[in-house]
């Protein structure tokens, strides 16, 4: 049990470890005191039945403890030792639960770290895709604007050529009229 407490104490991850240490020290102090008290008590002896009768009479008269009282005290101490054993057993079970809780906590920590890593990678990928889309949109806007400007320039050149063609046609017509008109005179 003490080695279990040391393992939990070394981890220092749970606030209940301090409480478990207090319980353990209390149980140890109680064990020492009960053992010392149990050692100084006289042991029952079946040959002293006659003395017990006299002790009962003396107790009634003088108010002193008798052998039967000592027997009762032994029984109470035995019950206390049994309860002390039960407390130690309960403490060992609590330590087992604390260990299991620690194992579960470490599994949950690993799962959270793994999930965080996955989310981080997804965010980084999404950001990379966002950057690529932004770059593509900027290129598209520049290209579209460039094409729009080029288209407008081509339309202006086309219109100018159309006007030039019309002007040349008029000039040829005037020139033909002038040439034909000179021939007729």
Description of the structure:
- By secondary structure, the protein is mostly helical.
- It has a domain at 2-124.
- 90% of the residues lie in helices and 0% in strands.
- The chain is built from four helices and no strands.
- The protein has helices at residues 2-11, 16-40, 49-62, 67-184.
- Helix 2 (16-40) runs antiparallel to helix 4 (67-184).
- The radius of gyration is 53 Å and the shape is rod-shaped.
- The model is unreliable at 4-8 (pLDDT under 50).
Which oligomeric form is depicted?
single chain
The helix-and-strand class reads: mainly alpha
Helix amount? over 70%
Q: Radius of gyration over alpha carbons?
A: 53 Å
Strand content: under 5%
Overall pLDDT score: 76
Count every helix, treating DSSP H or I runs of 4 or more residues as helices: 4
In this structure, how is the largest beta sheet organized?
none
Tally of strands:
0
N- to C-terminal distance: 139 Å
Which SSEs are present, and which pair or pack?
Layout: H1 2-11, H2 16-40, H3 49-62, H4 67-184
Helix pairs in contact: 2-4
Short description, anyone?
By secondary structure, the protein is mainly alpha-helical. 90% of the residues lie in helices and 0% in strands. It is built from four helices and no strands.
List keywords for this structure.
mainly alpha
